[in-house]
Fold this protein.
Amino acid sequence: MGESRQRVEVLGIEVDNVSLEEACFRVEQFINAARFALVVTANPEIIMLAQRDPEFRNIIRQADLVTADGTGVVWAGKWLGTPFRERVAGVDLAEALLAKAREKGWRIFLLGAKPGVAEKAARRLQEMFPGIAIAGTHHGYFREDEEPLARIKAAKPHLLLVGMGMGRQEKWVWRNRRHLAGMVCIGVGGTLDVLAGEVKRAPHLWRRLGLEWLYRLLQEPWRIRRLLVLPAYVGKVISTAWERKRGKQ
């Protein structure tokens, strides 16, 4: 399956050029194959973290699916000469898969966020998708000696949504991949907060204009620290694009 992947390289990170529908189809294939799979939803901050964290970069390179989560990644595709089909945000992918989970009978485990948030998200999901199988929940503020692996293994979910922050969530999944056999694990960042209603998602118009990041920043001003990497990201993408253009001349 890896040979047929169409990907766009963004600053050394290969991002799958898929639509939301195609991403869901691939996840369904992973589930049908009953094997471990890691899905990374890559935004500019994740790509920049991978520049300075070799372990994280190596994990992303071995992921089974990497989606273009973020207007900045879609923008980079255009600058680098290979436009993405569309943005596939983590929250959009999660919501689409949750709707499909009810139809297919997939079991879901929610891992991450502050204590109580995953449980609240589970209750809201059962209201949104009556009959959905929530196999379990656990917060993301656990110590190494109280990891929820035993609970997850006993629940045997098809989908494990992990919202523990970029880098940490992917490293945790990769470190424990032998214990997560048969599960599709998706790093979803703050998606559990959105699903729980703790954070309001940007209106459709803001999303269509590529301003969801600004809406989120207005709700959570502390995120400005994460966005400080964006000027460097833009500069690196433009520099790479110009180097490629000169190389073709």
Remarks:
- The mean pLDDT is 91.
- The first strand starts at residue 7 and ends at 10.
- The chain has one domain: 2-248.
- The chain has 13 helices and eight strands.
